[in-house]
Amino acid sequence: MDFGRIVTAMVTPFHADGSIDWETTGRLMDYLIEEQQTDSIVVSGTTGESPTLTDDEKIALFKFAVKHAAGRSKIIAGSGSNETAHSIHLTKVAEQCGVDGALIVVPYYNKPTQEGIYQHFKVIAEATNLPIMAYNVPGRTIVSMSAETTLRIAQIPNIVATKECASLEQVTMIATDAPADFRVYSGDDSSALPAVAVGAHGIVSVASHIIGKEIREMITCYLDGQVQQAQKLHAKSLPIFRGLFDLPNPVLVKAALKEKGLPVGGVRLPLVDATESEVAALRKILN
């Protein structure tokens, strides 16, 4: 399974009362696929505020995304959690919904050992036929999956990719030693170009909500040997890459979408919306 070069970790649009705005979800998907040229969409990931979504809402998102994409983009279900049994349950349901893959995060809060992390991924993979993308994000999970453990799970047939938010050194180690068909994705927009330079396949992006076409052009230029042009595009995009994370994600990308004429509502507590001064600072970066 190749999820493409550009994977968007999609926000979840909400009405003012906090319920999911399905009409806007459809418009957002169309915009990401048609205008921002995303290859795959992650629904109910961290950017989609998965910690505050109920299982029923997640399942409804899986079903809606599959139907609405209609083959135009692959759909990856954020079905992992810090409970292995629950991750298995939600991944099985996601498979029944027709998604193209599952994003499984390293267990957060529990602080498992590397062997515990390996077993978590192993038993989830054994319970589904879906292609799995692992998600290592130590800034949120506290424990980081080591390069060695990632290379172990890469031997499991249906674990086909990893979204890596640890160091560039770790990206290099995994990309160098993993099986040829195992894909490494950067999970950090600012590191997209450096990661591709050391062997990553692409990016699981937040900024692709706003500059997906530019990110694609940057990666394409690098792969075509136009390294200086890729560097220029990276430098031009860097303020947006950084600026979108001045507040906890997805607060500012939701604000940015509103600025771009596609309002997707606010965020659910315990996150809070950006203030007027914070939006003003974001506006300067976008313009």
Commentary on this structure:
- Pathway: Amino-acid biosynthesis; L-lysine biosynthesis via DAP pathway; (S)-tetrahydrodipicolinate from L-aspartate: step 3/4.
- InterPro entries: Aldolase_TIM, DapA, DapA-like, Schiff_base-form_aldolases_CS.
- Its EC number is 4.3.3.7.
- It catalyses: L-aspartate 4-semialdehyde + pyruvate = (2S,4S)-4-hydroxy-2,3,4,5-tetrahydrodipicolinate + H2O + H(+).
- The longest helix is centred in the C-terminal third of the chain and has 17 residues, at 227-243.
- Strand 1 (6-9), helix 1 and strand 2 form a beta-alpha-beta unit.
- The chain has one domain (6-286): Aldolase class I (TIM Barrel), CATH 3.20.20.70.
- The termini are far apart.
- The protein has 287 residues and is of the alpha/beta class.
- It has an eight-stranded parallel beta barrel, surrounded by five helices.
- Helix 3 (84-97) packs parallel to helix 4 (114-126), helix 9 (208-223) runs antiparallel to helix 10 (227-243) and helix 11 crosses helix 12.
- 47% of the residues lie in helices and 13% in strands.
Which keywords apply here?
TIM Barrel; eight-stranded parallel beta barrel; globular; 287 residues; alpha/beta
Task: Give a quick summary of the entry.
With 287 residues, the protein is an alpha/beta fold. It is built from 12 helices and 8 strands. It has one domain (6-286): Aldolase class I (TIM Barrel, Alpha-Beta Barrel).
Topology:
Blueprint: E1 6-9, H1 22-35, E2 40-43, H2 55-69, E3 74-78, H3 84-97, E4 101-105, H4 114-126, E5 132-136, H5 138-141, H6 147-153, E6 159-164, H7 168-177, E7 183-186, H8 192-197, E8 202-205, H9 208-223, H10 227-243, H11 251-259, H12 276-286
Parallel strand pairs: 1-2, 1-8, 2-3, 3-4, 4-5, 5-6, 6-7, 7-8
Helix pairs in contact: 1-2, 2-3, 3-4, 4-6, 6-7, 9-10, 11-12
Subunit structure: Homotetramer; dimer of dimers.
Keywords: Amino-acid biosynthesis, Cytoplasm, Diaminopimelate biosynthesis, Lyase, Lysine biosynthesis, Schiff base
Catalytic activity: L-aspartate 4-semialdehyde + pyruvate = (2S,4S)-4-hydroxy-2,3,4,5-tetrahydrodipicolinate + H2O + H(+)
